[in-house]
Amino acid sequence: MNYTHLIFDLDETLLDFKKTERVALSKTMHDYNIPYDETFHLPLYKKINKVLWDDLEKGLIKQEEIKIRRFIDYKDALNAHFSPVDFAESFMNHLGNGSYLLDGAESLINSLAPHYQLIILTNGLTAVQKSRVGASPIGDYFEHLFISEEIGIAKPNPKLFDHVMTQLKMTHPEIKKSQCLMIGDSLTSDIQGGINAGIDTCWVNLHGKANTSTLSPTYTITSLLDLKALFL
Q1: Which residue, among 29, 218, 230, 62, has the nearest Cα to 153 in the 3D structure?
Q2: pTM for the whole structure
Q3: Which of 9, 11, 16, 200 is catalytic?
Q4: Is the confidence at residue 126, as pLDDT, over 80?
Q5: Backbone Cα Rg of the chain
């Protein structure tokens, strides 16, 4: 393995987005004095949100649209009375404050940083991801933070990876795709994206999910500690 650049997804790879999302929705509902039942309101929101993010991966919707659209649909599903625009702003603010690291993430990045160039490539929203990475104890270890909304292309589109390679070549002119590894939890965005771009991939399968797709990651790990064993 001659990797020099490790490209990390962010959510559910290094940061605990499930907790971030759960806390943000609860706080936003309380901001609007809506009695919150996590067993009902959270699954409903996640169902609506997932449809939109799946459409983003398929190129059917722009990322900017998701911010408000999900809360238009959520408001309608709840038959509630709030401004989707204002609700979205409150939710985004709470999301941006959620820099919860997954177990082992800080130790992993501390160990890898002296040996590799570390990069983040996320399909998240610009303001949210910049805030979360900036507040995280691992933020300073990354040479680049690439955010799909800011670039205007989302994983798994290979054009996003082309953009990343172009940017990396500005400081590392000799870099080749064979020296890069895409590391992430999503088969449909991270692994498919890496394969589409001709880049090796590492599937972070922390929950032991079955791979029922036709995709074959270069590596599969079930713990972030496995990356240490793989690369150090």
Answers
A1: 62
A2: 0.92
A3: 9
A4: yes
A5: 18
Domain that includes residue 38, residue range: 17-96
Structure tokens, 200: 């090796």
Contact 179, 2 (CB under 8 A): yes
For residues 73 and 124, membership in a common domain is answered with no
Q: Say whether both 146 and 217 belong to one domain.
A: yes
- What CATH number has the domain bearing residue 120? 3.40.50.1000
Letter for the amino acid at 137? P
What is the enclosing helix (H) or strand (E) of 220? strand 219-221
208 within 8 A of 189, measured Cβ to Cβ: no
Q: What CATH number is attached to the domain comprising 58?
A: 1.10.150.240
- 119, pLDDT greater than 80: yes
Task: Among 96, 124, 150, identify where a domain stops.
Answer: 96
63: confidence class by pLDDT, cuts 50, 70, 90: confident
- Stretch (H or E) spanning 88: helix 84-96
Same domain? For 150 and 83 the reply is no
> Active site includes 86?
no
Co-location of 11 and 56 in the same domain: no
Rounded to 5 degrees, what are φ and ψ at 158? -65, -20
The residues pairing with 231 across neighbouring beta strands, listed in sequence order, are: none
